[in-house]
Amino acid sequence: MQVVPYKEESASKKEQVARMFDNISHRYDFLNHFLSLGIDKAWRKKAINILKPLQPKYLLDVATGTGDFAIQALKLNPEKITGIDISSGMLEVGRKKMQERGVASIIEMIQADSENLPFQENNFDAVTVAFGVRNFENLKLGLGEILRVMKPGALLVVLEFSRPRRFPFKQVYNFYFKTILPKLGNWISRDKAAYTYLPESVDAFPDGDDFLNVLKEVGYKNVSCKPLTFGISSIYTAQK
């Protein structure tokens, strides 16, 4: 059974996730940094640094949201970054950020479905996904679409939440993530479902070796996983 934000509704996960992010888009950036105590910025920096040796010119950022990861990727000096997301609300906030920073000519933001990418095969030098793959309705289909649009030898870098395994950090994390975070998120965003869905979707996601196995099944090579901050999140890399 799929984890969805609004359990009482019959709409698909894709539709529900899009609406959820539309609802919280106005507070998303603040909540991201506040609820993660700012650690998410360091995680993004580490993920982008992995791509430095490749010097990718054409980069795709899937589930780009408001474009934080795409902005971080400017340090790679690419010619073009394309960010895609299913939430029009998140993209609207993101486009304003790009205009304010004067980078709208480099970072293009498009409303699109990660499971049906509007690009030709062998198109991108690298693909990034930050905290987005667990929101895919069909994980293998989304990863397969990403593989299709990557050039041969291109690298996929996925930053995603995972579950700490070690005592006592596992217990502290679970208490914060499942008790404190939903209450704070609801209070600030006014969408109770969004921050109940977050820990539930992390619990349901096949993290660590399980995700590496999914990547291999889809057809990726040279897969690896690097846990961050006691295993709260992980950076996965995979090559076409």
Written overview of the protein:
It contains nine helices and seven strands. With 240 residues, the protein is an alpha/beta fold. It has one domain (13-239): Vaccinia Virus protein VP39 (Rossmann fold, 3-Layer(aba) Sandwich), CATH 3.40.50.150. The chain has a seven-stranded mixed sheet with strand order 3-2-1-4-5-7-6, with helices on both faces. The two termini are 30 Å apart. The model has no long low-confidence stretch (mean pLDDT 91).
In CATH, what is the class?
Alpha Beta
Name given to the CATH homologous superfamily: Vaccinia Virus protein VP39
Cα Rg: 17 Å
Structural class: alpha/beta
Question: What global shape is seen?
Answer: globular
Enumerate how many helices there are, as a single number.
Answer: 9
Reported by name, the CATH topology is Rossmann fold
State the distance separating the first and last CA atoms: 30 Å
**How are helices and strands ordered from N to C?**
HHHEHEHEEHEHHHEE
The strand line-up of the biggest sheet is: 3-2-1-4-5-7-6
Oligomer: single chain
| Low-pLDDT segments | none
> How many domains, as an integer?
1
**How large is the share of residues in beta strands?**
15-25%
Give the total of beta strands: 7
- Biggest sheet details: 7 strands, mixed
Q: Tell me the helix content.
A: 40-55%
Average residue-wise pLDDT: 91
CATH architecture: 3-Layer(aba) Sandwich
